[in-house]
Every structure is written in C-alpha cells, then in structure tokens.
C-alpha cells in the first residue's frame, strides 16, 4: 500500500486519515489500520461528520494554513478529489491528488 511506503520512508507524524464519519469512528479506523500494519497516531485520524467535498477541501486548506506545503490526497469519491485539487491549485503548494475507486 502506498500509505505504508510513505510511513516507512517519512514516518507517520504528518500522515493523516480524513473521513466524513463521526470522530468516534477514529478508534475503529485506527484498529483497522493497525491490523494491516499501518500505524498512524489516533490524533491524526479526523472524523469531519460532514460528507461534503468542501468539508475535505476546507480541512486541507486549514493544514496549509498550519504550514504544510506538500500534499498527497486520495479519495474514492471523485467530487472530493476535485474539490481538494481545486483548493490546492489556489494555494500553490506541491500536491498530487488521486481518485481511487
């Protein structure tokens, strides 16, 4: 998995999982990821409780505001990828987005 390769190369401090599900789902998501050998800190799993593409784009914009300037974003919903891609283009940061179905 691409995420495991990234963690092995760069560490897990700046790897995030973003979901439209409630924040309470973070523990289950962490348990699943741990089970497949992907170790991400619990605090890096964010439940937005909002399924709109703009919610994910806004979260990414917030991370850019914190100083992040290199993004790799993948999602299984094309509208989410498009919204984030559009936001990243405006922010003028290094980025790659991918639609994964």
Describe the structure.
- The protein is of the alpha/beta class and 101 residues long.
- It has helices spanning 2-10, 26-35, 53-65, 78-91, and strands at 17-19, 45-47, 70-75, 94-99.
- It contains 4 helices and 4 strands.
- The protein has a two-stranded parallel sheet.
- Strand 1 (17-19), helix 2 (26-35) and strand 2 form a beta-alpha-beta unit.
- Helix 3 (53-65) runs parallel beside helix 4 (78-91).
- The mean pLDDT is 94.
Overall 3D shape:
globular
Helix content: 40-55%
Computed over alpha carbons, the radius of gyration is: 13 Å
Largest sheet: 2 strands, parallel
Tally of DSSP helical segments: 4
Number of strands: 4
Q: In which order are the strands of the major sheet placed?
A: 1-2
Structural class: alpha/beta
Relative strand content: 15-25%
Low-confidence stretches: none
Task: Provide the residue-averaged pLDDT.
Answer: 94
Task: Give me the strand/helix succession.
Answer: HEHEHEHE
C-alpha termini separation? 14 Å
Question: What is the strand and helix layout of this fold?
Answer:
Layout: H1 2-10, E1 17-19, H2 26-35, E2 45-47, H3 53-65, E3 70-75, H4 78-91, E4 94-99
Parallel strand pairs: 1-2, 3-4
Task: Briefly characterize the structure.
The protein is α/β, with parallel strands linked by helices and 101 residues long.
State the main characteristics.
101 residues, alpha/beta, two-stranded parallel ribbon, two-stranded parallel sheet, 4 strands, globular
């Amino acid at each position: 998995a691409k995420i495991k390769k990234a963690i092995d190369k760069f560490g897990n401090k700046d790897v995030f999982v973003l979901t439209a599900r409630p924040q309470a789902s973070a523990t289950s998501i962490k348990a699943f990821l741990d089970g497949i050998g992907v170790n991400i800190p619990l605090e890096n799993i964010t439940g937005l409780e909002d399924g709109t593409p703009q919610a994910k784009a806004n979260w990414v914009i917030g991370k850019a505001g914190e100083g992040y300037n290199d993004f790799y974003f993948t999602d299984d919903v094309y509208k989410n990828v498009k919204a984030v891609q559009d936001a990243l283009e405006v922010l003028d940061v290094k980025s790659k987005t991918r639609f994964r179905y």
